[in-house]
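Re: that chain you flagged

S.,

Sorry for the slow reply, it's been a week of failed gels. I finally had a moment to sit down with the sequence you sent. For the record, here it is as I used it:
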Amino acid sequence: MSNLRWKKVQNFLEAHHFSAVNAAKISWWGLSRTYPLHVASKEGNFEVMLLLMKYGADPKQRDGRGKTAIAYTQLALRK
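Prediction finished late last night. Pasting the structure tokens below so you have them in one place:
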């Protein structure tokens, strides 16, 4: 089961062009950065969020706008 969970994380990282669980993706103009946990939060992908944290994603990490993934989760839940 653990291999399936890790594969799900790897697929998510690949699909969103991240190199690792805590790797930032920086915009082409260099002014904005985001992390896998933030993207999963914005998508409302709670299963992947939990898996990312299980594999070391930092829920306190702030993106280029100074927001944590939890802030995006709150926005996703309001939709």
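What I noticed first: Residues 2-15 form the longest helix (14 residues).

Talk soon,
D.
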